[in-house]
Amino acid sequence: xxxxxxxxxxxxxxxxxxxxxxxxxxxxxxxxxxxxxxxxxxxxxxxxxxxxxxxxxxxxxxxxxxxxxxxxxxxxxxxxxxxxxxxxxxxxxxxxxxxxxxxxxxxxxxxxxxxxxxxxxxxxxxxxxxxxxxxxxxxxxxxxxxxxxxxxxxxxxxxxxxxxxxxxxxxxxxxxxxxxxxxxxxxxxxxxxx
Length: 194
Hints:
By secondary structure, the protein is mainly alpha-helical. The protein is built from nine helices and no strands.
């Protein structure tokens, strides 16, 4: 059940916040704020596990936060975009960090990362599908939409990457992760084709 909640927080809430933040802030600002999950993970690990962060955790989170703040400069510059965009982007980081902590909690009871990834991905996708049903009416299946089919394919790619990481080490899946760029370009060209 914990893996399912982790999947819903990352796949549903996290992705929706990420896409909305990109829409409101633009790709550069949103992707920079996408680097904040480690900062929130330190906080959530303290709250959920009672884990006192080591100096390296604090230093790493501080470096990430400093880099983000350095890019944005003085707070008065933030007014160039909607404040809602920044809140939504920070929400994305918080949802993803919470999902990471929930996965760690789930692995304490069931030490099978592939199973946890699969359960989380399926729970997140089911939540997306159900929300699409209620938004579109129950007669129009969101599975018929191109974006939903592509999202399912993307989640399966992520599952395959996690399984490969578990069985092959970290280098092989990182090559597969690079496939996200052409995959996103193909999706964009299909979705916005006239």
